[in-house]
Amino acid sequence: MSGAMNPESGMAAPPAERLPVWLKITHGFGSIAYGVKENGFATFLLLFYNQVIGLDAGLVGTAIMLALIADAFVDPVIGELSDRTQTRWGRRLPWLYGAPIPLAVAWMLLWNPPEMSNAMTVAWLVGFAIVVRTLVSMCEVPSVALVPELTGDYDERTAVMRYRFLFGWAGGLVIMIMAYAVFFRANGETDPAGYVTYSAVGAIAMAAAVLFSAAGQHRRIARPSPPQPRQATGIAHVLAEMRQTLSNRAFLWLIFAALFGFVNQGIAYSMTNYLIGFVWMLEQVEKAIYAFMLFFSMIAAFIIVTPLSRKLGKRDATILSGAISLAFNTLLYGLYLTDLFPGMPDKPNVALMFAIVLASNTFAISVSVLSSSMMADVVEASQAETERRSEGLFFAGYFFMQKCATGLGIFAAGIILSLASFPIGAQPGGIDLETRHDLALGYVVALLLIGSAGLLVMRRFPISRQDHQARLARIAADQGTGGAGVP
């Protein structure tokens, strides 16, 4: 990477340039590991430990929430260590080469607990959930921290992020499709044997994706780490710098808004199998088609998100996309709960349900892409204040919040299931209409209230395209003259 260098900080300001497509693809490919993990945790883990292992849904939701929150505190450490890593290959590559193989092993163990007491099984779940998510962070935080290092262009960062989301969704949905169409085809999602194959394929996919991405970017990013701008290295000084960095106003507003979105995501993903299997009563083939449909929503988001950002700016595009997603989701379950949905009360019309979910999910994904791109812009806002580029720490803070919020979402999903008196060992078609309605009502009310709150908070995000471009120009001018910083 080229760019002017600040003599004091030693950190290059990234040029506002377009990147070759091959680099965007190679960079994004590594997020397949994140997609596989996210799909497993959000879609199957609650179901597996509840319906297959036999633990209470509320207990499993609580265990996963505790694991995610405990693990989340590791993320800022990983981010700070990544920013401070000094090697001849730079700050990020050593992490991308070192973490994938241990991740594959831990993933297998998470899905294959030995026979033991319920207390020990919960401990196994919590322990390996923390290990898996920590190792995923060791892959994901350094990788996504490369985005603001690769380019300073406001819109190009959104373009790079959409490739990350494309491959992340592809990884999660491909293994989801294989699960419905192959692993669980014979006996459904409560078949223990299916999870053995599911975990093995996922482990191989995660390790291969991260290693391929790292190797593919190696020639572009493998260069000696820039000199450390920090003079003191004591733990108190490090913590003080971390606190100063993470107190950036734009960062705080962004993660506060995203908190609501990730709580909703945790609820939605962890209840997917309950909703499509028991509320919408999809057959196995229809579940596989449902997964394909979700991938098409990612393609649709991939197409619209960059033009939408260019037209409205990232913040306003995020608010509009979130409002549209919530509107379609509310329409879907409003029709269901009032028995106005075609096919009710027996078998709801699957084609209409797919169409509404496609629209809702397209704009929900756009929100995620845009908020991640906004986080990249926070890096320069902080650099102007602190003279430090802390890409790893910022994205680690983002993941910290995401894990806590997702854990809360999974916990909330467990509560919704418990309040609906959802039985253990339930079979599709064997749940009475009242329980199905209670499940749908709790789900849609939670998503609507939480999502609306997040959109109201997002209005306070302070960085526009004009702000970002002016800040880059001031930083470049300051670095060119060897100044001390930008006020």
What does this entry look like structurally?
With 487 residues, this protein is an all-alpha fold. The chain has a single domain (21-225, 232-481), classed as Up-down Bundle (Growth Hormone, Chain: A), CATH 1.20.1250. The chain is built from 19 helices and no strands. The chain has helices at 21-29, 32-52, 57-72, 74-84, 93-98, 100-110, 118-144, 147-150, 154-183, 192-221, 235-246, 249-270, 272-279, 284-312, 314-337, 350-386, 391-419, 433-458, 465-481. Helix 2 (32-52) runs antiparallel to helix 7 and helix 14 runs antiparallel to helix 15. The protein is globular and about 70 Å long.
Précis, in short:
With 487 residues, the chain is mostly helical.
Features:
single chain; 487 residues; mainly alpha; Growth Hormone, Chain: A; 19 helices; globular; disordered N terminus
Write the layout of secondary structure elements.
Elements: H1 21-29, H2 32-52, H3 57-72, H4 74-84, H5 93-98, H6 100-110, H7 118-144, H8 147-150, H9 154-183, H10 192-221, H11 235-246, H12 249-270, H13 272-279, H14 284-312, H15 314-337, H16 350-386, H17 391-419, H18 433-458, H19 465-481
Structural class by secondary-structure content: mainly alpha
Mean pLDDT: 84
Helix coverage percent: over 70%
C-alpha end-to-end distance: 25 Å
What's the CATH architecture? Up-down Bundle
In percent, how much strand structure appears in the residues? under 5%
Return the CATH topology. Answer: Growth Hormone, Chain: A
